[in-house]
Amino acid sequence: MSDPISPPQLPAKRPRKGPANASISPAAANAAAASFKALTSKLDYLPAGDIEKIRQAYKFADEAHLGQLRNSGEPYITHPIAVAAQCADWKLDAQALMAALLHDALEDCGVTKVELIERFGSQVADLVDGLTKLDKLHFTTREENQAESFRKMLLAMARDVRVILIKLADRSHNMRTLADVSREKWGRISSETLDIYAPIAHRLGLNQIYRELQDLSFAYLYPWRNAILAKAVEKSRSRRRDLIQKVHRELEAAFATAGIAIRIAGREKSVYSIYRKMLQKHLSFAQVTDIYGFRLIVPSLLDCYTALGTLHQLYKPVPGRFKDHIAIAKLNGYQSLHTTLVGPSGVNIEFQLRTESMHLVAESGVAAHWLYKARNPEAANSERLGNQWLQSLLDIQRETGDAAEFWDHVKVDLYPDAVYVFTPKSQILSLPRGATVVDFAYAIHSNVGDRTMAARINGEQVPLRTELKNGDVVEVVTAPLSSPNPAWLSFVRTGRARSKIRHHLKTLAHAESESFGKKLLAQALRAEGIERFPEDDPAHQVVWERLLRFSGNRSRSELLIDIGLGKRIATIVAKRLVTLLSEETGEKPDALLLTRERFTAQDSLAQGVVTLDGSENASVHYSSCCRPIPGDAIVGYLGRGEGLVVHTAECPVASKLQAKDSERFIAVDWADEPVRPFEVQVLASVVNGKGVLARVAAALANAEADITHIDMGQDGAQDATDLRFVIAVRDRAHLDVALRNLRRTASVLRAERT
């Protein structure tokens, strides 16, 4: 939930016009900001010919935006100039700077791409086109527009990585001037920046831009929190000024003695980083110990490790707080040694050690490729400053130019801990790595997840357990009668999906167990001579209240569920219920019914028998030790908390249970028409030979018996082998057909049920 909207305290404020600048008129200030001179001071790394081309692009953009003003009242051209200036700080080439100046010309000024190609060449035009929003397409929601713009930007980045650098410079300047935009847009723009552009900057190693985008977004999303934390940091800075100066002096003395040339720079944790750490680790501001630190820039790689030894001699290291990001660089190419030491007054201080080239990559990431070439034009190994991920992007561009291949690659690595997929309406959803279609369905809505029947990814039918990839367009097919499958719990990744599935199954199991418990209690009441089951009505309210006090259950529903799950014996509850009915309502057992039930208890016509047809789901389990099928003589055991467990009458497991727990057995029988097939195990002894398994499988298929499992054992090849199948059959007659087919098959020595 956002803080109340109010003017945020920004990390870096732009100078405002007012009495302090009374000598400069607003018109003059605007003219100065809009002039090309604001940019030329940063172009000294380019040849004169390139600077002239950039000047021509500036003139074209200035004419195209003539008369347009920004929300602040400044000429619109000040924005393209600021974007180009940021790109010049990264030492990008002339084409990128021209595109930065022209990046809004296609969208806002009616300039065509053909016109840009004629004036400035196809590469500049392609860069500008990659940056242009999709204003010509019609979308039903803002989310679609955002998703498609994001997709197009990254696909343009596949053709030229400079697109994303210009886009980040553009977003940075827009965030710096967001105070001039209407307040209702602050939340949307800041959230988009925090969710999309800041992670891209981080993945590209543009840490300076990354931190600035985070802090600016935080300042507009949570202005009060930002202001409070900024004041706390300022107070902490003033309190620790003496400590920092002392450490600085001791460092200079120690490294002078060791003969290592170093450049010492302070490092202060950004306000948003402090806020996020407090939030994630449930810390107070006082508990965040790494707000301040030091960066030591040394001449060479070897000096990094030598300087580390000098540091550890000066201050004691904190165990477990050393990280070598030089030997194992981060995914975005960041390299440094990190160590936390116990400084003066027992204060923990973090130190980062790196070379000048590592520092370039740490702050500028992908832009360090151009920065280093600008500083060292002769350096043949400048590409080593680029990280492995960036190099792979450039290789794909150079070797394949395949935008789709690039799209898959960049999305997987851009968010290593997340998968970003699209709905059919082009909304972006973020899911954990390894998330499946079912996770996606529950992320949309719990009702969609519960009713999921099938799915299509990028237009193709896929299984529900399919893992999603970045950029997938996922469509979920639902059906009103569909419900969650317990098997989904084995592959879903998100906590939301898992909890929703479990809740639904638990609710379903309770409903089935309650119905089954009522059936068992009604059967037990009939055995006690009560024909009519007492409903939950005013006439029987006192009866149920007294019964619940006797059983210890909170509700009638809970009692019936316990009976259905076998936690309570129906006959014991029935006897107590008969007594209560007699005392409270005067209902007496029917002598005729009582006699009939007791004398026909072992008869197949007994009305108390529970009939089974396979539709019972969670309330009835068919034991895997004997695998009963319709036609078998069966018994039912009310397992404690398991519901009704069905065994064959000859099952040795059931015989042992009956000997020590006979009161938990109830009469069960098969329905005339079971609604599903049942699994049974079959043993086939065969003579080894080529094609034997295929012939055996074909014999079972001809009998219309589905094979659900095959076990060939662990023994090596012998003259004869036992094959164990689990097959699904309708009843005993169907099983007999399957066994006959097996016995008639060549190479089968014997076939029997096990």
Describe the structure.
- By secondary structure, this protein is of the alpha+beta class.
- The chain has seven domains: 19-221, Orthogonal Bundle (Hypothetical protein af1432), CATH 1.10.3210.10; 231-375, Beta Polymerase, domain 2, CATH 3.30.460.10; 386-411, no CATH class; 418-484, Ubiquitin-like (UB roll); 494-603, no CATH class; 609-675, no CATH class; 678-753, Alpha-Beta Plaits (2-Layer Sandwich), CATH 3.30.70.
- The chain is built from 30 helices and 20 strands.
- The strands form six sheets. Strands 1-2-5-4-3 form a five-stranded mixed sheet. It has a four-stranded mixed sheet with strand order 12-14-13-15, with helices on one face.
- A hairpin with a 3-residue loop joins strand 13 (634-639) and strand 14 (643-648).
- It starts with 25 loop residues before the first helix and ends with a strand.
Secondary structure layout:
Blueprint: H1 26-34, H2 37-40, H3 48-64, H4 78-89, H5 94-102, H6 105-108, H7 113-120, H8 122-131, H9 142-159, H10 162-176, H11 186-203, H12 207-221, H13 223-239, H14 241-258, E1 263-268, H15 271-281, E2 292-298, H16 301-314, E3 316-324, E4 337-342, E5 348-355, H17 356-364, H18 368-375, H19 388-399, H20 403-414, E6 418-422, E7 428-432, H21 437-444, H22 446-450, E8 452-457, E9 460-462, E10 474-478, H23 495-527, H24 541-551, H25 556-564, H26 570-584, H27 591-599, E11 610-612, E12 620-622, E13 634-639, E14 643-648, H28 652-660, E15 665-666, E16 668-670, E17 678-687, H29 692-702, E18 706-711, E19 720-729, H30 732-743, E20 748-753
Parallel strand pairs: 2-5, 11-16, 12-14
Antiparallel strand pairs: 1-2, 3-4, 4-5, 6-7, 8-9, 8-10, 13-14, 13-15, 17-19, 17-20, 18-19
Helix pairs in contact: 3-5, 4-5, 4-10, 5-8, 5-10, 7-8, 8-9, 8-10, 9-10, 9-20, 10-12, 11-12, 12-13, 13-15, 14-16, 17-18, 19-20, 21-23, 23-25, 23-26, 24-26, 29-30
